[in-house]
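Appendix B. One record, verbatim.
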Amino acid sequence: MEGMTRRGFAERLALAVAAPYLLEDVPRPPLQPRPHQQPQEPSPLAKALAEGIRLRYPDRFSADDLATITRGIDNRLRQIERLYQTALTNADEPDFVYSVYRGAD
């Protein structure tokens, strides 16, 4: 989104919010199935966190539930890792810095 102005961002945001109301009667194309990807083995950290959940609540989850929880944890950990890999420039910081007013020095 390099070069996007605040006004342009606000216009796109307003359009995204209003889109469901504007497009109510527009016929939708049929959904295309996604190509099936080979499921990845959950990371050891995801397995350990899911094991902690199993130990904390031993009678609440079945094996299928724990497998689903493990995949969900692993997906979140992968998303966090991708987020950490995003390089930020100096221009990505906010326009202002909040600091608490502690009275006159």
